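hi! just following up on the protien thing from before. the input was this:
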Amino acid sequence: MAKIKRALISVSDKTGIVEMAKALDSMGVEILSTGGTAKALRDAGINVRDVSDYTGFPEMLDGRLKTLHPKIHGGLLARRDNEKDMEDLKTHGIEPIDMVIVNLYPFEQTISKEGVTFTEAIENIDIGGPTMLRSASKNLQDVAVVVDPKDYEAIIQEMQNLDGDLSYKTRARLAKKVFEHTARYDTLIADYLSSVIEEEEVFPETLTMTFRLGSALRYGENPHQRAAFYYEKSNSLNLLDAKKLQGKDMSFNNYYDTHSALMLALEFDKPACAIIKHNNPCGVAIGEKAADAYVKAFKTDPVSAFGGVIAFNTEVDGDAAKELTKIFIEVVIAPSFTDEALKIFSEKPNIRILEMPDMKKPIKGWDIKRIAGGVLLQDWDTAKVDVKSLKAVTKRQPTPDELEGLDFAWRVVKHVKSNAIVYAFKDRTAGLGIGQTSRVFSTKAGAANAVVDLKGTVVASDGFFPFRDGIDTIHEMGVTAVIQPGGSVKDDEVIKAADEHGMAMIITGVRHFKH
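and the predicted 3d structure came back as:
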């Protein structure tokens, strides 16, 4: 490694580039540049040599071709300790380039714009930039490569301390960052092309995904596990869009539970509240306002609600805040909060208050489960059933109130771990049977967890009843109507049991397992 004498600068994001170039110029570094970057540097009084003057070849094809030239890539790829490489440079009049400062055409920002055309997207695919970055990174022992403006200050500081050089460790770190950057860039392009080109295969032969670090977290599910939140691009529902108005930093479990609470609250059009504990619902309700929904949801399981995560699909006002602050809670997320509510929450500064105005964005991409050796990929479970349009398979049809209850319970059961049983009234949960190894166990667990009389409730089941024992159990609890997917070889037996008990039963044909 030797002192950096020549740098090529070509950036779309010009944040901090004038200051960076001035610092290089003050250390005697010759600067090569192109187009708009060269103009910006000259306007700042910095001496710049145009790449086209250096290569003897003008920019052409409306700027598509600028730096793809042997005098550029020879200067980047030549190994300084290789005599043959250096002889080649001398023979062809190529000068070594010791630093590349490049960031790429804003492809991600372009495709994120509403109404962007295919032509606009294609013209924002950078070719010369990634090529220079890769050439420089391959020769990292001799060439420093910079892709992130946030690194400028530290690089200048180190060059000043090392008489114009950078350590091998720094060069290697910067090269690694480049390949991460270009891999993400290529993935964004591949994803975009997949979205606009109709393909027969739903699942790509090669799964390419890209995520950026949103924040490091205090720890994972347990204190001995490291954790971070990485986010993906696109206009999908994104918890990083939620603004934290107060409270401690979010933890791994906070994010995971907040996601579950949010997805459940968004099942409803009416004002709704979902209380989540250990990634399972412990109370869900709808009401006229946030306070009404919360009070009813809380009554499902007041003990488990302690330390829970709570989501609303409607504004949280002072009345709701007064109720919420009566117990310890971890997180409250809502589209908005009144000033009165925020004042009340401020008296409990450890509660994390997340405001997410645009929480009704669709959730896009894939639902991914990591397993040993790979990932399992599936669509998000966004299936909807118009429960009120379905006819009962039993002799008795549900009453209007029962139908309201069945619709409510069916929206909730989708978010309860299997095997799932939800006892409910038409506007709130009454008992939750969660994650049991048999369905009849779930019916019993849901009843055992209930703190209210279950007489007159309805039940939703995420999967079919394999035997009539589940129906017999919920009848004993006073259930009058049930909704389930059906599909068991014992369906006739199960329906007969419901008829014997005078229950109404709706079969949806849709299953909602959640492991």
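Residues 238-355 form a domain with the Cytidine Deaminase; domain 2 fold (CATH 3.40.140.20).
The chain has three domains: 6-196, 238-355, 389-507.
cheers
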